[in-house]
Write a structure and sequence with these properties.
Helices cover 72% and strands 6% of the residues. It has 352 residues and is mainly alpha-helical. Strands 1-4 form a two-stranded antiparallel sheet. It has a two-stranded antiparallel ribbon with strand order 2-3.
């Protein structure tokens, strides 16, 4: 006799788990956790989190991190890693600052410098990883040290940029209609985002489309899932790995200029630890360290989740740096455990 199909909520959940891809499953978990976290912040930390500008300020402060996290997600989906992005961001920021203030440069020239630096790192590191088969951790570790060292060589002391063209760009605000609020004086204040946020969201949209609906995106997932199988299916594994690092390098260059627009200064200490925050955001967003699983929208929510928990810790009066580190570590471990449990349970359901 044919076996009867199970009914009830448990059966519905089991069928949904079985039909849902690992990427979409982890994306769903990330989005749900973010909203629960933000609602909890509104309940326990007061109405400050209820104002739309609070959310927009999270985007303003983390536009560069969103862009670097997108680059990291692509490399991690392809089965690699890149820990040089923070150093590249700092080098771009310092190089653009020196160019604008000390050499009377233009904003377009600074953008060209940012793209050039990112492209150079992407080309060199991608070639060493893909075609010389050197471990990506070692290559990008060397890249991180090189970028940090070059930042100090370009200029030692921190300084604020006073170039008029750049200052005008930095102070440009994009009004978000319908999300303003009334301040304590009874005046209506428009909600806004910085130019860098628009750039970051466009990059998220572009690479969401690339990963979901292009052959290159499918190649990234195939190589990260199983490079030998991808090779047998006709995927150029070396070229795919090279392109993942090239894209990550270029995005790090763009992130460097966006970061520079936000801070408006050059300093060797800029973007300290950004590479670790980008990796953490990608993991929280559902990107697996083992490769083959990830989603750019999840990465965006990973950055938002990381920033929200930092704001909650700060609002609770725990301003010491170690509290932020402890909460990020706890959150990262939680999501790694969730990933492990979800994937293992799904495999059990599929084998039944």
């Amino acid at each position: 006799m044919p076996e009867k199909k199970k009914s009830g909520i448990g059966a519905i959940i089991s069928r949904w788990f079985g039909r849902t891809s690992d990427t979409n499953l982890l994306l769903t978990i990330t989005i749900v956790v973010f909203f629960l976290m933000y609602i909890g912040a509104i309940i326990f930390q007061g109405e400050g989190f209820l104002k739309p500008q609070t959310f927009f300020n999270i985007l303003n402060a983390n536009a560069a991190l969103i862009i670097t996290s997108v680059g990291l997600s692509i490399v991690m989906i392809c089965g690699g890693i890149d820990i040089s992005v923070g150093g590249v961001v700092a080098l771009v920021s310092m190089s653009c600052a020196v160019f604008l203030d000390f050499h009377n440069g233009s904003v377009l020239g600074a953008i060209a410098i940012a793209l050039g630096i990112g492209l150079a790192f992407g080309l060199v590191q991608g070639f060493l990883v893909a075609y010389l088969d050197i471990q990506p951790f070692i290559v990008t570790l060397a890249g991180m040290f090189f970028a940090r060292g070059m930042t100090t060589i370009v200029h030692t002391a921190p300084f604020n940029v006073e170039n008029e063209e750049f200052v005008a760009l930095k102070e440009t605000r994009v009004i978000v209609p319908g999300f303003g609020s009334v301040n304590k004086l009874g005046n209506y204040v428009n909600a806004y985002v910085e130019v860098g946020v628009i750039v970051a969201l466009l990059i998220v949209l572009i690479f969401f489309v690339v990963l979901r609906w292009t052959n290159l995106g499918r190649a990234f997932y195939a190589v990260g899932g199983n490079s030998q199988s991808a090779l047998m299916l006709g995927v150029n594994v070396k070229r795919t790995k090279f392109l993942s690092h090239l894209i990550c390098g270029v995005l790090a260059g763009i992130a460097g200029f966006v970061y520079f627009m936000h801070v408006g200064s050059g300093s060797a200490s800029h973007a300290s630890g950004m590479e670790m925050n980008a990796i953490a955001s990608s993991i929280i967003g559902g990107t697996m360290l083992s490769g083959g699983v990830g989603n750019i929208i999840g990465t965006l929510f990973g950055v938002l989740s990381l920033s929200t928990i930092q704001n909650i810790v700060s609002s609770a009066g725990l301003d010491q740096a170690w509290w932020t580190g402890i909460t990020i570590a706890a959150m990262l471990c939680l999501f790694l455990v969730i990933q492990s449990i979800v994937i293992s349970n799904k495999k059990k359901l599929l084998t039944k």
